[in-house]
Amino acid sequence: MAKKIETVCGFSCSDCDHLNNECPGCKKTKGKPFWTAFVDAACCPVYDCCTNKKQLPHCGKCPDLICERFTRFREPGVTDEQVQAGLAAMERELRNRK
Predict the structure, then answer these.
(1) How far is the CA of 8 from the CAs of 47, 65, 79, in angstroms?
(2) Where do the structural domains in the chain lie, given as residue ranges?
(3) pTM
(4) Taking the C-alpha atoms of 53, 57, 78 and 14 in order, what is their torsion angle to the nearest 10 degrees?
């Protein structure tokens, strides 16, 4: 079983289809994964806030969890139900890390 690659947002890079193809992971890219180029963002807004601005180890330490940064961008073709389930899983992961 591969080791889970944790991120500041609670998503696991190990679960991403783009890992090692278009992207080496959020930590290695310092919050600039491949997808930021497609949404005209210099850095992932969640990573930027958590790591660069608040200097937290992950969003589970932030009193504003889950904030609008988590919903600012969304993968096309994903249903509202899938988005909500994904956000709930990320929040559970982050709260368990505290």
Answers:
(1) 6, 11, 24
(2) 13-97
(3) 0.87
(4) 140
